[in-house]
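User: C-alpha cells for this complex, please. No commentary.
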Amino acid sequence: MARRMPPVDVVLVGFGWTASIIAQELTDAGVQVLALERGAWRDTVPDFATDHIQDELRYAVRKQIFESPERETLTFRNDASQTALPMRHLGSFLPAAGVGGAGVHWNGQCWRFLPQDFVIRTHTEQRYGKGFIPEGMNLQDWGVTYEELEPHYDRFEYLCGVSGQAGNVGGQLVAGGNPFEGARQRGYPLPPLERSASTVLFDKAAREVGFKPFPCPAANASRPYRNPLGVQMGQCTYCGYCEWFGCGNYSKASPQTTILPVLLQKDNFHFKTHCAVTRVNTDHTGKRATGVTYVDVEGNEIEQPAQMVVLCAFAQHNVHLLLVSKIGQPYDPVSNTGVVGRNYAYQITSSAEVFQKERLNPFMGAGALGQAIDEFNGDNFDHGPQGFIGGGYVALWNTGGRPILQHYLPENAPKWGAGWKKAMHENYLTACSVVTHGSVMSYRSSYLDLDPTWRDVYGNPLLRLTFDFQPNELKMSGFLTDKAAQIGRAIPGATVHEKKRQGPYSIVPYQTTHNTGGAVMGNDPKTSVVNRYLQSWDVPNLWVMGACAFPQNAGYNPTGTVGALTFWSAAAMKRYLKNPGPLVTA
Amino acid sequence: MRASLARFSQRRMGLRRSLALAGLLLAAVLCSACSPDREPAAPSTVKLGQRMSAGPWGDISRGRYLVHAGDCKACHTAPGGAPFAGDRAIPTPFGTIYSSNITPDPETGIGRWTDEDFYRAMHEGIDRLGNHLYPAFPYPWYTRMSRDDVRAIKAYLDTLAPVRQNHRENELPWPLGQRGVLAVWNGMFFDEGTYRPDPDRSAQWNRGAYLVKGPGHCGACHSDKNLAGATDEDDPLTGGFAEHAFAPNLAGGIRDGLGTWTGQDIVQYLRTGRNGRTAAAGPMAEVIEQSTQYLSKPDLEAIAVYLKSLPATKDASVASVDKDTLGRGAALYVDNCAGCHLGEGQGELGAFPPLRKSTAVQAQSADTLIGVILNGARIPRTEAEPTGLAMQGFADHLDDAQIATLTTYIRNAWGNHAEAVDAGHVEDLRETLRKSPDG
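Assistant:
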C-alpha cells in the first residue's frame, strides 16, 4: 500500500525546462506547486564548474548526465514486422536525468518554427493538392497558429537571453537576419555571438551561391544579460563544451541560469529529487486525475494527491506515463485509431564535410554558434518539382573542437595508427562540416506503444518505439545534403565529402535528441491526445508538455517551440485555475 | 591574558596576526559566513516598512527593522534551526561560543526579561542574572543605541513564537570560560554610552553614524582590534579581520578604501550585494543577505554619507613585484580566471565582478581574496539581485605557490597595487579554512 502525502494544488512530473516555466507561472498565480524529479539536484557551481566540466570522456563518452538505461530505457524496431529489443546503451538520442533536464545539456540552438509549419496540412493541400500527401503520412495541423504563439516565443527568448539577428520585425525584413522567419514583435534580446573563422567561410560561400545566410539564434549569451525575472547570465567564453555538458559560466540558458534562482525562493514551490513517477492516478470515472504515484530512492512507493497534474518529463516519458496509466486510447496502427503513441517523429540529419586549407581553430566554439540558410526549410521553396514534403536548414555550426568526438577526416584517411595521426594533424584545425537539419513527418507506421515482453525496474512494460525513415524524408534529406555540398564546394580549395543519411534508421549512432509526437496537440480528439492548450481531452486536470505535443517535426531544433508552447499552455492553465474544466469542448 | 592568547594561537603569524586573532576571541565573530547553499533571501511578501509612529504597532515594526539593521538573526539562528532560538556555533581559534535563545521562551529564552533587563544586556553587556556576556555579542556597539530603539527591538522579539532551546555551554578553555575575566575586559576596553549626535553635522550624517556605530556594529569586523580584541574607541573602520577573512577599509583610501566610491555605489552595494566595482564575498555576503538589503533607502544613503565623511587613510607603500612572478601569475590568470573576469580584470558588468581597481582586491590583507580563490564564493542573493552567481573554489586545482603567485598578480595587475602574498601564508590559510566549519 503506497504511503500517501498531503495533497498539493499542482504536481509536476519532472523538473526540466517545461516544469520550471510552469512552476514559475503557476506559483505567480498563487497555487502550491510540487515538482518530482527522478534525477539529482544540480547547479552551476559546483556541478558544472569550469575546473572539471570540460571533460569529454566523462560527459560525452561516458554520458554522465543522461538517464541511465538500467533504470529506464525503451525497446526499438524499425517496423511492425520485427521484434523490438531493449536498448542497453543509449545512442541516437540522449534524454537527460536531473534538475534542469535536457535544458542543462542542450546546445542552445533556439529556433522558431515557420508560420506554415503549424498549419502544414491545410497549407500543403492548398498549395499542392490533397494528392500530394503520401499514403500513410498522418500530416496534421497543430491547432495553434504562429501568430498565437509569437508572444510566447518572445517570452522564452527573453527569458533565455537569445543572441541573434532578427530577420523580420513586425513584417519588415531586416538585413542580415533570416528573411524567411515569421514576423516577430521585436529583435532578439542580445546581438549575435562573435563569428568564428568557419562560420565566416560558410557565410561567404553561401552568399556566393546566392543564398541569404544569417547567424543562428543562440541561447548562449553573447553579452552579460539580465532576464525579465532579474536573473543574470555571464557572456559566453566560447569554450566549446555546450552539448552534453552543463555550462560553468552561466552563459547557456537553462532552468538553473534563468528561472530557478527566483523560483526556489518561493514558499509555494517545492521539489523532490530521486523520485520517479510511475503512474498518474485517476478516480473511478477515469476522467479526473487524483495525483501521481512515485517511487523514491529507497524503493518506497508513495502517492502524491494533487488537484492538477502536469507531465513535464521528456517527450517519450510523458507518452510512456500516459500508456501505463491507461489514460487516453492507445494508438492502433492497423486501424489508424487511438491517439496515445500516435505520430511519433524525429529529425533527419546529414552533412557535407569540407576539407580546405584555411586555419579555423574549431576549439573556440559555442553550442549555437553557427551560420545558416533557410531557403530550403518548411515550404520556403516550391516542393512541386521535388515531390516531397518538408525541408530543413543548412548550417555550419562551430560547436567546438573536442579531441575525442569532434573532428573530421577525409574519406580515405586511415582509421588508426600513424596514418590516422597524420591525417588528424593535417585536418583538425582546418576541416569543418556543413550540416542539414531536416523535418520528419508523422506516419501510420511510426508510433510508440508498450512492449509486450520487456519491463523496467518498476515493473512497468517498457516503451516500444517503432520507427524508420520514410522515402519522403530520405528524398528531402538527400536534396538538402546536395545544397550543403554546393555551399561546401564554394569554399576556396575545398574537397567535399557528402554524407547523405541512409535508411534504415539506426538507433545506435547519435543523431539528435529531437524526439517528437506520441501525445500530440490538435483540435480533434480522434487524432490528438491534448487540445490546443496541451490539456488532456480525456482528463481535463491533466496537462502534457513538451515535444510529444508536436503533430510532426519541423526542420528546426525543437526547444524554442517547446518553450513557447509551455508559456502558451501556462497562460491557459491560469484561466483554467479560475474555472476548472475543459478549455475546448470536443 | 596575553600569555594565554599566545599559547592558543597555533598558526605561524606575525604580531599583526596575533592581534587580529586575539580580536577573534572576544569580538568580531558576529559576521561569520556559513549560510548553507541556496539559503533563501526570503524577502517578505508584504512591505511593512519602517513605521516610526508611537504606540505598540509602531514599536514592533521599528523593532523588526532594527533587528535587520543589527543582523541579530544571523548569529542567533543555528543552521536549519528555529529563527532567533540561538545555538549557532561561533568558532574562534580558541574555542566555540554558542549564541543564545532570544525568543520569548520563559525557561530558555528571554521570556522573563523585562525591558530594563534587555536594555542592560544591550547597553552594558550584562544578562538578567547579572552575568557578563562575551563581547562576541556586540554590546560595545549596541551600547550606543537609544533606549527607545532597544525597547522596540524587545517589543518585536516578544512577538516571536517561543522556542524551547537551552543554551549550550561555550567551549572555552580556562580561564577564558570564567566570566569574571570579562569584568576586567570591560573595565579596560568598554565604554558604555549612548550615541550623542554631533551638532556640527547634518541629521543625515548623524543617522548614518548612529547606524554604523550602533546597530550596524560595522566596526566589529571593519576596525582593527587591539591585543584583547577591542577596537579603538574611535572605531576608525580602516579594516580588520573577521574570522578568516579581512573586512576591508571603509575610510577614504583610494586604493584599498572607499575613496573612489560614490555614495550611490555604497547604497547599491548594501542594498543588492554588488555594484559596478565589486561584489560582496566572505562574511559580508551574509550581512547583505540578512541585514543591509532590508534597510530603507534614506538609511542606506545616511550610511553612505557617514562613510564618505571618514578621512582618507594614506595608502601604505608596497614593494613592487618582480616581473617573473607577474608573468607566471598572468599565465595562471588566463587559465583559471579570465573566462569570467576577462583579460584586463574588468569583469562583466551585471555578471562577474571586476578585479581591476577593486578596493577589496587591494585590501591591506589578501585573506578574503585567497579564501575566495581556495573555496569559491557566491554573490549574495537579494531581492534586487536574486541570481546568486557563484564561483567554484580552486583548492583542489592550484597549489599554495600557484595561489600565492595568482593572488599577487591579481593584486598588482592592471594598475592594482598591493602587498605580495607568499606560499607559506596560503598554506596556513588553507589549513585554517579546512578546519573551520564555515570554511
